[in-house]
Batch of 2 targets.
Target 1
Amino acid sequence: MERERAMQLYYDMARIRAFERIVEELVVSGATRGLIHTSIGNEASAVAVCDVMEPSDYLLTGHRGHGHVLARGADPYEVMSEILGHQDGLCRGMGGSMHLVDMAHRTIGATGVVGGNLSMALGAAYSARQLGSDGVAVVFFGDGATSTGAFHEALNLAAVWHLPVLMVCENNTVAEFTSRHEHSVVDEIVRFAEPFAIPASRMVAVDAIAVREHAQEAIALVRHTPGPYLLELETRRLVGHYAGDPRRVGNVRAMADTWDPLLVTAERLKKEGWYTADELNSFVVEAEVEIRAAAAKAKAGKPASPHDIDALLSAT
Amino acid sequence: MIEGGLTSYSRALNLALAEEMEADPTVHVFGEDVAEGGAFGTTRGLVDRFGKDRVRNTPISESTIVGLATGAAITGLRPVVEVMFIDFLTLAMDALVNHAAKLRFMSGGQLRVPLVLRTQNGAIGGAGAQHSQSLEAWTAHVPGLKVVTPATPRDARGLMRASIRDADPVVFIEHKGSYGLKEQLHPDDGLVAIGEATIRRHGSDLTIVCYGGAVTVAGLVASDLAERGIDAEVVDLRTLVPLDISTVLESVRKTGRVVVYHEAVLRAGFGAEIAARIQEEAFADLKLPVRRIGARAIPLPAAAHLESAIIPDRAGVLMTILTFLEAN
């Protein structure tokens, strides 16, 4: 891990954090409507996994996907515009927060239906190989998705067809507001891989450097076997379920030292002797400035119009 | 390559699949038992010709099969995915309705889903309530899907080829009882355009609008009517979405009397959509109210001899039409 790459990871996490804080503000202030879920607490997972992807790989995510989409390279102005329902949004304002698609970076989908992205990831992996690329599909989902039939069907079919899919489960131990033990007797999601002989591992995803090293091994295995891999990343949701939701699961202030990826990764960078606290702070400030500018520009943008709907439908 | 002689509906589909797979290496076929030829023989021989990579058996995982096909469609392939019975489409509705149908729009046009979902409808005696349904109305109700219902071998071939070439998802609904139907095909039979109805029988007294499995019955009923001096015109819609309403209206303006007939349950069936459009757009040309014919809203009994109590057969359709014409 080079010092510069570590800084980039940290900076990208800070960008995501800044972005999501602004999204929370916009929702609370009533500047935007809709079903919006921020990913505060998942930043290390997003930047580390996306950093080990190749340009030819496909990314899919779910309703809590802003971080993934940004980490993969989407323009924050276009992501914010999409959340606001503006013309310059990634999806021309038609998809919104839960359905971000950014084809320029092979982010082929997010779904608002829990588990709905798993089978599509299998399809993307399948077509990559059929068309002669060594691309893989990376799909993010939460622990709640592991109760769906879609999850178990996907494990089975990925194993039978040797599909190169990196299945990344961000296990924050809570599905909306129900804790995991209320809807599953299986605490460790990696266990689900066992009957299918799918390689799997779990780790706490707060030190982005450590997550990246681990994700690199996992994706190499996926690419070269080829075959599926189930990567369970433990995180904690440091905010409510949806943007503006005042409810918290656990005492998030007390949890921050252990579970806030920015704090933990900062400690790692300092411990390695790579950056000082002041330098790290300046990265955070720089990220906030960048994101605030993009958000302000997005807010000032044109809302999507009914004309845009017709234009979309008539394109052949 | 068409062989001489009569070609069955299932063979016509087989030919269409082979023709498109030959022309375009991105066309892949998925489904339960497809490599074995399929439950009705439609995919027979394809795996020998095109290989296991392109003709793939799947586990019994309808939701994931259709989702996988969707994921493949948005990343460069043209999948033809089979759901063996439309009754099992219920298991794949999330993949079809929430994803395949919506991705083009939700992505602001970044994604296209050139997917064909092949399935089959209908009752053929004794298959029971879970293997005999006609659920085309469900798919017709979903924005983002095209729905085709070929009744004849020529149309099956032409519409399958057109569906595979379409850039958007097409639900291709075959009829269980039609696989053995035979028709003379010609090598220069071209594509049948999606969204075009056709007149099966020209007439001037009555319009019968129908599609899919009902078309054959409608043809027989038309000859029964002719024996009684009633000259019926049979309009085969061929495509439900997009609906070729102008061909229907042209017939309505000519005859002034319409019966809309399908095998599916009458209540909230696709016939209601057709009837509503006719009266909205050609009210002044109607001599009578539009009459619909369809199945009673009761799950189908398994005993084959009871089917006609639920799904009108030829005699039942004829009786209904005669009663309707007499009463008016």
Note: The mean pLDDT of chain B is 96.
Target 2
Amino acid sequence: MHTQSLTELSSALKNKEFSSKELTQHYLARIEKYDAVLNSFITVTPEQALAQAERADQLLAKGGAQPLTGIPIAQKDIFCTKGVRSSAGSRMLDNFVSPYDATAVAKAEQAGMVMLGKTNMDDMAMGSSNENSYYGCVKNPWDLARVPGGSSGGSAAAVAAGLTPIATGTDTGGSIRQPSAFCGITGLKPTYGRVSRYGMIAFASSLDQGGPMGRSAEDVALLMKVMAGFDVMDSTSTDIPVPDYSATLNDSLAGLKIGLPKEYFSEGLDPAIAACIEAAAKEYEKLGATLHEISLPNSHLSVPAYYVIAPAECSSNLSRYDGIRFGHRCENPKDLLDLYTRSRAEGFGKEVKRRIMIGTYMLSSGYFDAYYLKAQKIRRLIADDYRKALAEVDVILGPTAPSTAFKLGEKASDPVSMYLSDIYTIAVNLAGLPAMSVPAGFVEQLPVGMQLTGNYFAEAKLLNAAHQYQQVTDWHKRVPEQFRE
Amino acid sequence: MSPEEVKKIAHLARLAILSEEELAAYTRNLSDIMHLIEQLKAVDTTGVEPMPHPLDATQRLRPDEITESDQHQLLQSVAPFATVESLYLVPQVIEE
């Protein structure tokens, strides 16, 4: 069951080959068997899952089922889930049982999906390796000595190891795409405003987006249809209709113009990874696409600009954690200042505190113009680069990450080196564009992801391009040896 | 960045610095991050508008009508410490 597509599982449920309850029990058993090693879940919700599965089975029997009724899902622990701990991977929210559901979670429930649990992640979504979680690091199913990527490392590892058929993630600087690349799965960061952020614990409000992570573009398209849509509860959510992403997966790619940014293929890129991307480009040519060299001249500024804007926004968002209304509170505070400073120092991990401090500095008087305002202007230069490029080509192709999964501990003590692993993904968040990571090969038995970036609200085109590539390649079907049974 | 500046920022951010090692680590890390960011200063951005929102959207407004219900009991059920008559208890703030 754990290597079947969502469509196959849905079909099997409708034909009564097995029930949603049996399917859910299958995944719960796999989580019990394998997750002690991977640590991809923070909270598993067996009773709730089985209750949801029973309701799904009733719907399936009555004939009122939707495409994803009865299909299990794992939710990144950044999404508030009513009655279930929602920790964002942080000690700050270890005691937080959410009183409400995030819109993305409510939509999955309304679609009849069965929540297996909440997946592990970097503390407050800040990290690129899932080594910053209060709940311990997550292991990459392809090599347990390596990171799965972050911040959605738990979701990526759980999907890759077949502990869940599909999962949600969030992406502020690459946190869906980079772990998808490191774990050999398919992940989509939607256009800013496409998926509601209501109930999605905030990191950087102008950059955050939630999205699907799964075993294929076909699966991801199904969950994307459920997640996307205008939400009155999110004032940054865009009010445009949601297309049927599955309906256009099989459109021909003849005439599709693919741009390859020359800045991405410089000496900094591992030649073995460059070779995978070049091979993928050739597959696209065979499918009828044409390749074009493009330029994104300000791409070298994305990482520094991001590390002004994201920390600034995070310092503002995380000021809500004051030990008073929810979350961690220190013992025996001697006065209000002590309550604030110690609750926050104890509740947040090191990386979170670093970013809050950088952000506070950027926004403080005397520095606001030189840093924050400057970075927002550079952000426009970066977005304009993409606008010009996407006037010439339909889709931009490049590597998702500069390396394959690095070893646990390798970058943990050097924050800046960790930041540079997001070099290809970050600019996309600054511009607010949609982008996917798609499995494109292996280097020394570790997965390589290619990144497809599209124009605003062009998720259907990206999914189509990814799906057609997955019809002529089988990278996305591989399962790490240890987790096959 | 100097340890003094780090202490000032930590105060603004309401973050206690729990040890001398922590102060030294933050000073090092923050200086490295500032070094990464310095390259932004050299970029010519004359005449460029800042981009606070990726789609240049403006805040959506709605009519000033009550649409929510009183859920304070539910929402206060997650308080980490005591509440009394819907008020959160904190250490004394105002002197006698």
Note: Chain A has a mean pLDDT of 96.
